[in-house]
Design brief:
- The complex is a heterodimer of chains A (300) and B (289).
- In chain A, 75% of the residues lie in helices and 0% in strands.
- Chain A is built from twelve helices and no strands.
- The N and C termini of chain A lie far apart (58 Å).
- Chain B is mostly helical.
- A two-stranded antiparallel sheet of chain B has the order 1-2.
- In chain B, a hairpin with a 2-residue loop joins strand 1 and strand 2.
- Chain B is globular, with a radius of gyration of 18 Å.
- The chains are: A mainly alpha (300), B mainly alpha (289).
- At the A-B interface, helix 4, helix 10 and helix 12 of A face helix 4, helix 9 and helix 11 of B.
Chain lengths: 300, 289
């Protein structure tokens, strides 16, 4: 039970990190990203390959994961920054699928659908599995803390204010002399880097990655997390991640209680509940639990 | 490319692939034209249609033609019900909110089907036919019939749009909703018709995909990128564009599967989207703006 709880909290941290990354791109800058799992996968593969085959030290691998994802984000941003939201949704969704297809088929690099196993973890093997879990829990939540502080600071800096201006009205931001595309590009890179780092942490915790782990379902989890917590607010992203995990695990226990249901049906029920909660949440409380506080001067 | 026969074979295969993509792409564009949001749930509607057709064909023993009609009607009804209950209330929040909810809707439909039918691959009750051969070009009779069904369904929609009062009203709303409203066209009714037709065509196309291979709860989602590519290449919201775009994407995908590997079909579709958005964002037959 203790091991289970620790593992769940590690996953909560990874989800929180992803929600923070998405919040920069979607929450602050208003660019919808339905392909966030693609950046997560790029980070996971980058770090796994570098540390396992090139024997890079893990912190360097993680940094490289963030960098690789940011690079992918930059390429994406250059292509999509001018597009309207509906095209952006289609293109980002496509990007994640392409990443998954490439990971499944370029066997020489990624070992295809068999995936990569034996990815090193910090002090894995040197300490007991329980201790490893706890160490990793510390690392993940430290990463969440650092990302939270840096991103919250960025969000309140002049940089963050421009991003929000771009979100609210691109033309006004452009008229005010802000290079809109350049800001969008940097926001996309920053968010993608955080997603890539989350991917690396996932790979090193799990010790195994495969293309099926990067399904669009994960994107839905994180979009749900951010919507639940409150789009735009960094605290909301973390809170939302915890809620989604609670929902995911709660439905697991609930599904066990239902008699005469096959495992496939249980999985289907759980995914249905996730999908249904996102639809209901968008309807009932689209601003989330912690709505973004923006200081607007009352008009006289 | 060894000789002209290989090239022609790729072209024939591409047109057959494209005609299967055509109906979901037209359905997607039809909904977009009237409601102005990308409805990702066409993937779910296609799968619903494929399963409805399967029940009609395999469990009730109906012929394929009637099963296709069942696929159209059930998918259309499910699409309309989902739109009215889940998506319509979100319209005031903006097109992106609806788009995100439609992704969740696809997931929901997929999992309802998974709950009932599990993940097994299912095939339709079809006679096994030998390929036709002309001068070394192989044509699968089932695929050729699928092209016929797809063209028939698309023609019916074009006739509806071109020659009926309802079709004119739909085009009017797509063109200028405010003006159509002033002229006494009920936008709510047109929206319902567009969603029913769009989801129904997606379901019809979903069953055609199944006739080609087999079906499972991911049938629709697997082709969704190709369907979007067809709609974007043709011009989002343009129905003739979606038909043309589907053929272009189909041929492109067949070429890629010969030149690279069959696994990279979807990647080609994605590249087609990027190429069109970079060079000609309004698509082949779309309008600017």
């Amino acid at each position: 039970m203790e091991a289970y709880l620790t593992a769940m909290l590690v996953f909560a941290g990874i989800y929180a990190l992803m929600a923070l990354g998405l919040n920069v791109i979607w929450g602050l800058t208003g660019m919808v990203n339905l392909g966030l799992v693609g950046f997560f996968a790029v980070g996971a593969y980058a770090s796994a390959l570098l540390t396992k085959y090139w024997l890079w030290p893990m912190p360097l691998g993680w940094a490289a994961a963030g960098l690789a994802a940011a690079l992918a984000g930059a390429v994406m941003a250059v292509i999509v920054a001018r597009l309207r939201g509906d095209y952006l949704a289609i293109v980002t969704l496509g990007f994640a699928e392409v990443v998954r297809i490439v990971a499944s088929n370029e066997v020489w690099l990624t070992n295809g659908t068999d995936g990569i196993s034996g990815i090193p973890g910090p002090w894995r093997g040197a300490v007991s599995p329980q201790a490893f879990n706890l160490i990793f829990l510390g690392i993940v939540w430290a990463a969440v803390g650092i990302a939270f502080l840096l991103l919250a600071r960025a969000s309140h800096s002049p940089f963050g204010r421009v991003l929000r201006a771009v979100r609210e009205d691109e033309e006004v931001a452009a008229v005010a002399g802000k290079p809109v595309l350049w800001f969008k590009l940097r926001a996309f890179c920053l968010g993608a880097a955080v997603l890539g780092l989350a991917g690396a942490l996932y790979a090193h915790y799990n010790a195994y990655i495969a293309p099926e782990g990067f399904a669009p379902l994960l994107t839905i989890y994180i979009v749900l997390a951010l919507t639940a917590g409150g789009v735009g607010a960094m605290r909301g992203a973390v809170l939302g991640a915890l809620i989604v995990l609670l929902l995911l695990e709660g439905t697991r226990f609930l599904a066990q209680e239902i008699p005469g249901v096959t495992p496939v049906q249980k999985a289907a029920l759980r995914e249905s509940i996730i999908a249904l909660s996102l639809i209901l949440l968008l309807r009932v409380r689209p601003q989330g639990l912690i709505p973004e506080r923006t200081r607007t001067r009352a008009s006289p | 490319m060894a000789d002209w026969r290989d090239l022609l074979q790729v072209l024939v295969n591409g047109l057959m692939t494209g005609s299967v993509l055509m109906l979901p792409a037209i359905g997607f564009s039809c909904i977009f034209a009237v409601l102005r949001y990308p409805n990702f749930a066409v993937a779910g509607f296609a799968t619903v249609g494929a399963f409805a057709g399967w029940v009609a064909n395999v469990q009730w023993g109906l012929p394929v033609g009637l099963a296709l009609l069942a696929a159209f009607l059930v998918a259309g009804a499910v699409g309309l019900a989902a739109e009215e209950t889940a998506l319509k209330p979100l319209r005031p929040a903006g097109p992106l909110t609806v788009a995100i909810a439609s992704v969740a809707l696809t997931l929901l439909l997929e999992n309802i089907l998974r709950f009932v039918f599990a993940n097994d691959l299912r095939g339709y009750d079809l006679p096994v036919l030998r390929d036709w051969r002309f001068e070394g070009i192989r044509i699968n009779p089932q695929q050729a019939m699928n092209v016929g069904y797809a063209v028939a369904a698309a023609s019916a929609l074009f006739a509806l749009l071109a020659f009926t009062r309802l079709g004119r009203a739909m085009r009017a709303v797509a063109d200028n909703p405010a003006l159509a409203d002033i002229k006494g066209v009920d936008p709510g009714r047109i929206a319902r018709v567009a969603v029913f037709l769009g989801a129904g065509l997606a379901g019809f196309g979903g069953m055609l995909i199944g006739l080609d291979t087999s079906i499972d709860p991911l049938t629709g989602f697997r082709v969704i990128l190709s369907v979007f590519a067809a709609a974007v290449v043709g011009g989002l919201g343009s129905i003739p564009g979606a038909a043309l775009g589907a053929l272009v994407v189909g041929v492109g995908e067949e070429m890629a599967s010969v030149l690279l590997s069959p696994a990279y079909r979807t990647v080609t579709a994605f590249l087609a989207i990027l190429l069109v958005l970079t060079i000609r964002p309004e698509g082949l037959l779309g309008r600017r703006g």
